[in-house]
Amino acid sequence: MADKTIRKRIMFYVQHLLGIGHLERALRLSRYLQDAGLDVTLVSGGKPYPHAAAHGAKIIQLAPARAADADFSALLDSAGNPIDDVWRAQRQQALLRAFDDCAPHALLVEMFPFGRRQFSFELLPLLQAARARPSAPLVLCSVRDILIPSGKSGRSEEAIARARELFDHILVHGDADFLRLEESYPAATALSEKIIYTGYVTAGTPRADTGYAGSNEVTISAGGGAVGEALLLSALQARARSVQAGNKVWRILVGANAPEGQLQTLKDGAPEGVIVEAARPDFPQMLLHCACSVSQGGYNTVMDILQAKAAAHTPAVIVPFATAREREQTIRAEALARAGLAILLPQAQLGPAALAAAVDQAILQKNLSPRLPDLNGGPATARILREKLHG
């Protein structure tokens, strides 16, 4: 029988490349795991995030890597130079040292092998080291609700083979009754025996008594801000065209990863009735009181919106970030629109008039009460890990 007096150790690897969405979800999960009595070491390979430590986990920061652009065409180091074999070797060794120091009972890897293939140079040795330990840790993959297959021949088959060989379970942070993984990633049907749906991972229920900032305003956000400039520029001029919200304050929140100078440019161009400021930590609370939320369709922002919708029926407009290769946000936004949870405005149709019309439509539909997906993924993930670790 397993000794339940031992505080189980979790090592959680995450690599964000453009925005902070992957890291934010990992930090949210880490907090739930810590709250459930598990010791979490979070190993991050992206740009350092100053608020990471507030989530309670021990943070190990690897030499950071980021995507050169929204097409993920190349990987750059902290100095903006392309990563090379020396950099790769040093990161691999740092990751393996972190694994040895942590000696985890469970190893949680975000996205790989369904993404982050460029980091196979360190992840395959890590997973092989885990399998080689005399007391091998439980090895789990942590993925969001949507995966986009590579267009290159053989990549999905490679990912499925690696998942079969190297992972005990695939934790899908979504609701199978709302959106099944195979809808976006058909090859996932081959892993049905390993897949566990946890429910969606939120930041926790926002408290309505922590202030009324943004009350009766239209709140416009673009996640971390690495992409989304077109949405924010359209919002500057949309207020004057809105019938339902033309007399309300429109507040534009600019993320920390926005291009240099964007915040000031938007401030300089803001007409009367439009406020531009840096993204705020009380964003989830603001959504409880706003007249309408306008955002992109990233996982964490959508979770904040759904929490607000559950508590206050907050109207929402989703303008998903999309490129020829990137359809994740579009698929999620389409599912939300089908369920009556948000108004979808495709990026290709974005403009001040279209945005104003979408806001008007969302406000008029405020009193609808569609069924929400399962939002209990954080506590459920912690419960699943505890049950697996304690037999």
Content-based structural category:
alpha/beta
Under the CATH scheme, which architecture of the largest domain would be assigned?
3-Layer(aba) Sandwich
Order of helices and strands: EHEEEEHEHEHEHEEHEHEHEHEHEHH
Shape: globular
Summarize the biggest pleated sheet.
Answer: 7 strands, parallel
Present the secondary structure layout.
Layout: E1 9-14, H1 21-35, E2 39-44, E3 58-61, E4 66-67, E5 75-76, H2 85-102, E6 106-110, H3 120-132, E7 138-143, H4 155-166, E8 169-172, H5 181-184, E9 195-197, E10 218-221, H6 229-238, E11 250-254, H7 262-268, E12 274-278, H8 283-289, E13 292-295, H9 299-312, E14 316-318, H10 328-338, E15 343-344, H11 352-364, H12 377-389
Parallel strand pairs: 1-2, 1-6, 2-3, 6-7, 7-8, 8-9, 10-11, 10-13, 11-12, 13-14, 14-15
Antiparallel strand pairs: 4-5
Helix pairs in contact: 1-12, 2-3, 6-11, 8-9
Account of the protein in words:
- The chain has 391 residues and is α/β, with parallel strands linked by helices.
- The protein folds into two domains: 9-200 and 375-389, Glycogen Phosphorylase B (Rossmann fold, 3-Layer(aba) Sandwich); 218-364, Rossmann fold.
- 35% of the residues lie in helices and 16% in strands.
- It has helices at 21-35, 85-102, 120-132, 155-166, 181-184, 229-238, 262-268, 283-289, 299-312, 328-338, 352-364, 377-389; strands spanning 9-14, 39-44, 58-61, 66-67, 75-76, 106-110, 138-143, 169-172, 195-197, 218-221, 250-254, 274-278, 292-295, 316-318, 343-344.
